[in-house]
Structure formats: structure tokens, C-alpha cells
């Protein structure tokens, strides 16, 4: 017995609209996206988790909250060769730890055994604001 009658909506073909939203124009076929090795993807995500845990051990010396919960980390990129690149900011451009904190973050990441190399890029755009802080950080600082 077929499930076609039980779930007819599962067999309805919907038209594909072009990016312009014009339904009359046919959408050209595209190449299927290349699927990365799922095992490698999982390994990269696990390493990203280890990087996050390492970042949670680094504290802004003026604020008793770790830099990850403060929202100072903008991006973590793990390359297929296990090189890690982090984009981070500081609470203000004139922050007294501007010369030392990125180096400390880089060393902390590089100390993870699986990491081949670590680089930290200090960025100012978008500017940091308290909106980037996690709920845990806001709660810890009594701002919630």
C-alpha cells in the first residue's frame, strides 16, 4: 500500500522562482553544491568548540567576564589543515590591553594540540557594544 494518499502534500512539485522573483523566466540548472567530507566537517566543528572553550579562559582584565561571553570574538575560522584564524575586537580602540590581549588569545589557541597554527586579527568594524554580550555576561555584571 502506498502512502501517496496519506501524505499527498509530500508529492507536490513547487515551481522554482528566479532570483529576480519573476516566475515567467526559467531558472537555469546549476551545478549541485560540492559536499565537503562530512567527517572533516565534524572534526573542524569539534576543533572550533575547543577554540571557544580556550577563549572562555581568557578574561578582559578590566571586566571580570571572559572575552567570548563579552562578545569580543567576531569570527572563528578553522581551515582544513587545522589552522585557526580569529577575528576579535576590544571594548574600545584605546583599550590598555590592545597590545597584549590579541597575543594572549593567539597563544591560548595555539596551545590546543590539534591546532597547526593560530592567527588573531584585531578588527574595529563593527564597533563593539554591550549588545554583543551574552545573557550570561549581562547577568554576571548585573546588567540584566
Kindly summarize this structure in a few lines.
It contains three helices and three strands; from the N terminus they run H-E-E-H-E-H.
Would you write up a description of this structure?
The chain is an alpha+beta fold and 144 residues long. The protein has three helices and three strands, in the order αββαβα. The protein has helices at 38-55, 101-110, 135-140, and strands at 73-78, 83-88, 117-122. A three-stranded mixed β-sheet has the order 1-2-3, covered by helices on one side. β1 (73-78) and β2 (83-88) form a beta hairpin. It is globular and about 50 Å long. The termini are far apart. 17% of the residues are buried. Mean pLDDT is 83; it is low at 7-21.
Q: What amount of the residues lies in strands?
A: 5-15%
One letter per element, helices H and strands E, the order comes to HEEHEH
Instruction: Determine the number of helices (DSSP H or I, runs of at least 4 residues).
Output: 3
Large-scale geometry: globular
Taking pLDDT < 50 over at least 5 consecutive residues as the criterion, the unreliable ranges are 7-21
Portion of residues within helices: 10-25%
Report how far the terminal alpha carbons are from each other. Answer: 57 Å
Oligomer: single chain
How many beta-strand segments? 3
Backbone structural class: alpha+beta
Radius of gyration: 23 Å
Largest sheet: 3 strands, mixed
| Average pLDDT number | 83
Q: Enumerate the strands of the largest sheet in spatial order, edge to edge or round the barrel.
A: 1-2-3
Amino acid at each position: 500500500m502506498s502512502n501517496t494518499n496519506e501524505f499527498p502534500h509530500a508529492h507536490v512539485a513547487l515551481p522554482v522562482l528566479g532570483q529576480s522573483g519573476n516566475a515567467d523566466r526559467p531558472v537555469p540548472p546549476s551545478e549541485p553544491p560540492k559536499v565537503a567530507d562530512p567527517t572533516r566537517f565534524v572534526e573542524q566543528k569539534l576543533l572550533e568548540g575547543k577554540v571557544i572553550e580556550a577563549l572562555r579562559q581568557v578574561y578582559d582584565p578590566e571586566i571580570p567576564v571572559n572575552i567570548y561571553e563579552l562578545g569580543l570574538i567576531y569570527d572563528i575560522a578553522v581551515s582544513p589543515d587545522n589552522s585557526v584564524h580569529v577575528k576579535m575586537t576590544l571594548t574600545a580602540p584605546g583599550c590598555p590591553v590592545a597590545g597584549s590581549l590579541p597575543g594572549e588569545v593567539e597563544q591560548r589557541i595555539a596551545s590546543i594540540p590539534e591546532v597547526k597554527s593560530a592567527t588573531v586579527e584585531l578588527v574595529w568594524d563593527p564597533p563593539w557594544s554591550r549588545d554583543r554580550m551574552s545573557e550570561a555576561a549581562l547577568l554576571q555584571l548585573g546588567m540584566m
